[in-house]
Amino acid sequence: MTGWDIKPQGVQGQLKVVGVHAGELEKALNALMKDFGEAARWAGTAVPGTSASTPLHGPVAPGQAPLSRAASGPVAAALGEYVTARQAQLKSMSERIQAAVLGAATATNEYVEGDLDTAKQAQNAAKSVRLDVLKDLRGAK
Q1: Between these two residues, 51 and 92, which has the higher pLDDT value?
Q2: To which H or E segment does residue 94 belong?
């Protein structure tokens, strides 16, 4: 640990850059999910005309149209499966970014305050993507 030579202003500058890129990634992923939904909705079905909706059973308020749900076709089903299969990867990517940012910020703050043990804990928690530990370390101060 005594070999650390951190320049807090440099870390702060890099965290800002990462924050901008993380924000851009979030916007891109949100747009992608919206586009998947649109593509699934517009892909159509193999069912012609009025049969393209599935009536749902249950009580309907007086004066309201009966409940129904648009049928989905094979393209919509495939897109849904693709998104479902990628959810774990997307969550992992998000958690790794969050751990890297929180870990760098926490370790740097602890380094500046002279608490090298906590700085090392933050570094290790970031490496192992332990968001719970990082949040506890930040909350302990």
Answers
A1: 92
A2: helix 74-113
Cα distances (Å, whole numbers) of residue 75 to 31, 34, 37, 54:
19, 15, 11, 17
Sign of CA dihedral 21, 22, 28, 32: positive
SS3 content of the chain, % helix, strand, coil (to 5): 70, 5, 25
Task: Quote the pTM value.
Answer: 0.71
pLDDT digits (tens, 9 = 90+) for 72-107: 778 888 998 999 999 999 999 999 999 999 999 999
The tokens describing 57, both together, are 């059973």
Token pair for residue 29? 């992923």
